[in-house]
Backbone:
């Protein structure tokens, strides 16, 4: 089964990440905490490289973007204005298959047959599913039917999700019964131990969350089984074996997702923001939130940045930093975490009406491909297209080829009410779903949204502080327009503002007055900038880079013994270690001295790893697993054994194992040209 194989790949990647110190489970020594991950020595370097490359590309190498580093906790008023406090607080129910949420009070009543399962057995793993890292070696072998009978009879009704949830009494009784059936011989203590181990292992193999499906009239029960298998597979159960199928009729039920048929979660006020209190008093007045995105600080500081940075629209503000979301189901390793990092740019542009007033028309650009260098007559569509293409270039520049990427253009139904367009850049992860033709679209790495003037308008309304800019060029151009054009532009701008104000529930009379004032403002050179937002997740990108880099190579030695080694083929620009420096022999002081000199020459410029332990082959293999693109060996020729090779080193390339000789004096430039 293709999916199972891909899950196996994911398991290997998770295991390599731990073994080589890329990513660890947070708080692992205390059993971990779901949705939180730590980056080990190699992961920390990889992450730092990615963030620095993003920062350099998005800010330092551009004239029109500046940076910001804001606090994680901000005034709760920001989250009120942004809509996060209210829009996440609805009573929602979630479809466990599609993750789509529906308002609890808006589910259409349905009639049909309910098919219900108690859980599923995980046939092919000896691991506890809920505890990620604990291993339970099987001690008693049962045939699947035996396991199933025993589970259904003794454990199913309690539905424990861990051994601790089964009472000792129950466990003992259960164990005795099991062992009697199996004809197990032993004293009381042996029986108790064996029973405990058996239940431990079996419960570990059993995912105990129930699943129910509403079969519409005339549909075969197979549809329910297929959905249940997807449900349990999504939760990490390999080759699920469904347990306890029961069917019954229902009329006008509002418990099932109208599209997928799956039973909806309990209704919950779904606010993804982590709440805390500022100061010593835990009262409602002191509530604050950990930011769920970095973007809002940029909007809140827009005025200050504009006033201090000598930037003029169009320009952008970039920020990299932590974000927190209390995700209901964190999953797929780091892909959906509760604490993660974002790299966000808010790029402020003139509204199209201002562009049209100044330049006569808004530039049209082809719907695909890079539109080229920014032009003054670009409207939101050109800017949006530009940023999508710039971001794709960025990903390609760090080794994610176009074949590994995909796009999702959000449909009008998917778009936020204020957004005009949003293109998601996807990466084909091992866990990404296949469509019916077997194609993989991928999962979201980054979204590039055209968010209109919604955010600044909200902060202007909520804070009472002006967020508009004055544009001298617009004012001058407006005066030269003919009356018909003025009227047309005024009306369009007015209608856009009125639509926004009405949608936000502003009193109709006030909305009409404000929209008129805004349109009058445009005629005097004033507008609230629109925004294009490329918003990327650092952790998802790290996972994409690790997945992309992972490769297995089987090597056979002279004696015919073969072993599989792992090579992390990171692009040199992101590789955690750029170069390994190795003296050929550890016990030759003159080789060691030279190698340390080379290390010290390179160290101020890049991350260098000095290694003199073990055979040179072993040292190369260690660097291959870490993803180091180049290794330098200092040998006797370096010291002048062959005079023509004096002060040269061997450079070994990770991906093809090829070696070449280079003068130490040329090394730095040679490496910098490849790792930067
Ligand atoms: N300001 C817009 C915004 O935050 P988003 O699509 O919710 O948009 C942007 O998030 C990016 O942040 C996503 O494309 C993803 O890469 C990353 N991201 C969002 N939620 C995440 C999570 N729970 N775990 C890891 N990364 C996440």
Residues:
């Amino acid at each position: 089964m293709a999916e199972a194989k891909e899950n196996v790949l994911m398991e290997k990647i998770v295991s390599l990440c731990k073994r080589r110190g890329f990513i660890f489970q947070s708080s692992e020594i205390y059993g971990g905490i779901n949705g939180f991950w730590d980056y080990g020595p190699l992961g920390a370097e990889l992450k730092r490289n990615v963030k620095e490359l993003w920062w350099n590309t998005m800010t330092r190498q551009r004239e029109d973007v500046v940076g910001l580093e804001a606090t994680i906790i901000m005034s709760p008023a920001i989250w009120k204005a942004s809509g996060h406090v209210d829009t996440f607080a609805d009573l929602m129910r979630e479809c466990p298959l599609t993750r789509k949420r529906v308002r609890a009070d808006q589910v259409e009543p349905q009639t049909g047959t309910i098919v219900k399962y108690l859980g599923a057995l995980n046939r092919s793993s000896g691991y506890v599913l809920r505890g990620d890292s604990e291993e339970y070696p099987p001690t008693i072998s049962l045939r699947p039917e035996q396991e199933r009978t025993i589970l259904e009879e003794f454990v199913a009704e309690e539905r424990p999700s861990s051994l601790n949830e089964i009472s000792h009494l129950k466990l003992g009784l259960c164990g005795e019964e099991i062992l009697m059936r199996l004809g197990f011989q032993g004293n009381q203590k042996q029986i108790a131990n064996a029973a405990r181990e058996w239940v431990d292992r079996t419960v570990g193999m059993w995912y105990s969350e129930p699943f129910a499906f509403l079969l519409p009239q005339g549909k075969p029960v197979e549809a329910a089984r297929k959905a249940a298998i997807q449900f349990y597979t999504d939760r990490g159960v390999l080759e699920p074996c469904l347990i306890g199928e029961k069917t019954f009729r229902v009329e006008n039920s509002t418990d099932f997702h109208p599209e997928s048929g799956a039973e909806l979660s309990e209704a919950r006020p779904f606010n993804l923001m982590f709440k805390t209190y500022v100061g010593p008093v835990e009262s409602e007045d002191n509530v604050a939130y950990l930011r769920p995105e970095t973007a809002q600080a940029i909007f809140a500081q827009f005025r200050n940045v504009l006033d201090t940075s000598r930037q003029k629209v169009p320009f952008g503000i970039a920020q990299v930093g932590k974000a927190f979301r209390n995700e209901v189901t964190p999953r797929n390793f780091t892909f959906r975490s509760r604490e993660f990092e974002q790299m966000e740019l808010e790029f402020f542009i003139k509204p199209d009406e201002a562009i049209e007033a100044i330049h006569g028309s808004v530039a049209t650009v082809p719907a695909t491909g890079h539109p080229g260098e920014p032009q003054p007559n670009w409207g939101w569509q050109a800017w949006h297209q530009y940023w999508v293409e710039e971001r794709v270039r960025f990903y390609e520049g760090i080794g994610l080829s176009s074949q590994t990427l995909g796009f999702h253009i959000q449909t009008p139904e998917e778009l936020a009410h204020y957004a005009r367009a949003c293109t998601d850049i996807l990466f084909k992860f091992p866990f990404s779903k296949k469509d019916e033709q077997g194609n993989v679209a991928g999962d979201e790495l980054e979204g590039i949204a055209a968010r209109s003037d919604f955010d600044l308008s909200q902060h202007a309304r909520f804070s009472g502080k002006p967020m508009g800019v004055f544009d001298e060029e617009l004012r001058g151009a407006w005066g030269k327009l003919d009356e018909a054009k003025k009227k047309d532009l005024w009306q369009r701008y007015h209608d856009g503002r009125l639509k926004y104000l009405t949608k936000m529930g502003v009193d109709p009379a006030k909305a009409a007055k404000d929209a008129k004032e805004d349109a009058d403002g445009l005629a005097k050179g004033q507008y609230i900038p629109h925004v294009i937002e490329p918003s990327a997740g650092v952790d998802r990108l790290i996972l994409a880079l690790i997945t992309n880099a992972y490769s297995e190579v089987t090597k056979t030695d002279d004696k015919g013994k073969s072993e599989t080694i792992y090579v992390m083929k990171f692009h040199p620009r992101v590789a955690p270690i750029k170069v390994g420096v190795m003296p050929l022999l550890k016990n030759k002081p003159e080789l060691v001295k030279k190698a340390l000199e080379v290390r010290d020459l390179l160290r101020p410029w890049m991350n260098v790893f000095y290694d003199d332990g073990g055979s040179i082959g072993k040292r190369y293999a260690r660097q291959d697993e870490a993803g180091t693109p180049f290794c330098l060996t200092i040998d006797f020729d370096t010291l002048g054994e062959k005079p023509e090779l004096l002060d040269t080193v061997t450079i070994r390339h990770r991906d093809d194992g090829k070696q070449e000789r280079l003068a130490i004096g040329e090394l730095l430039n040679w490496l910098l040209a490849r790792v930067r």
The mean pLDDT is 88. Residues 483-503 form the longest helix (21 residues). The longest strand covers residues 339-349. The two ends are 41 Å apart (CA to CA).
